[in-house]
């Protein structure tokens, strides 16, 4: 007998739907490295249209999508990119922009809502007359939604303002839009309008949208031409990739309309967690599908809580030494949410009573591994 697991570690854990599997099986394919895969071409054209950009390119992962984008804009070694000190690109992508691209990161503090103060962005831009001593600023990166800030949405007004800064100073703007559709739905702003100020955007297809694999980057035709070469250089050129693009097309078609429900369930989770006295939750901070809660009782640690929950087939992820993250997705039901809250209450009771048994985690969860 297979026991249902409620997996709230991330929205990356979804399994392909039957419609996705059927689309993959029926996909018309050819060699995409040779530019001949018709399903990939159709999907990329559709994503460019949806995002309001000239062209798009399918890549294996969000990390590669961001890396390719940064390297395409910063194609001279010694370039510098301005980005948040708590951003995904800076923290969770293995330092690829510097390790592989010779691009120097200039960090600006992220505010609790995921933004960076605009005046600090401006102050971080290098003066051209200092080129003898300093890296050359060429790019600004934003992240929407902002994962480390709890899935906060970056407003279109703020994005436009940063876009104006970039344009005024002759820079480019890239948006790490791993969950940009979540932001679009939560803000009630069409996704193409939300990213209009950006020169490039990376969109993760396997997070909120629930595709099994891949991301897409969008931008001008000239940008995508450079990006395609970089994708090949990094080993991301795949052959009959239309099989994956077929599933991604279904994900975009079928899942965007479900994101608001994911957000609703996250708020239900947060509301239930707030009623547990050992936890603190900022309900106002739950804007999309992520819930972070802090543990106030020193007898309960995130690792202990996640271990006891796993024994009840609820998977969660420690976010820090004092907090836990839960992420909803379209394969989490209302009954799953209620079951999770019940299990968390019982887990707290077990830990505090000394009756909990702690074993090695089997779900691959480790502290501070939530860059997903």
TrEMBL record:
Pfam families: Beta_elim_lyase. It is an enzyme of class 4 (lyase). Its cofactor is pyridoxal 5'-phosphate. Its EC number is 4.1.2.48. The keyword Lyase applies. It comes from the Eukaryota. GO terms for molecular function: L-allo-threonine aldolase activity. Residues 7-294 form the Aromatic amino acid beta-eliminating lyase/threonine aldolase domain. Pathway: Amino-acid degradation; L-threonine degradation via aldolase pathway; acetaldehyde and glycine from L-threonine: step 1/1. GO terms for biological process: glycine biosynthetic process; L-threonine catabolic process. InterPro entries: ArAA_b-elim_lyase/Thr_aldolase, Low_specificity_L-TA-like, PyrdxlP-dep_Trfase, PyrdxlP-dep_Trfase_major, PyrdxlP-dep_Trfase_small. Keywords: Lyase, Pyridoxal phosphate. One of its GO terms (cellular component) is cytosol. The modification N6-(pyridoxal phosphate)lysine is found at residue 207. It catalyses: L-threonine = acetaldehyde + glycine; L-allo-threonine = acetaldehyde + glycine. NCBIfam families: GntG_guanitoxin, PRK10534.1. Threonine aldolase involved in threonine degradation to glycine. May play a role in the removal of L-allo-threonine. Belongs to the threonine aldolase family. This is low-specificity L-threonine aldolase. The lineage of its organism: Eukaryota, Viridiplantae, Streptophyta, Embryophyta, Tracheophyta.
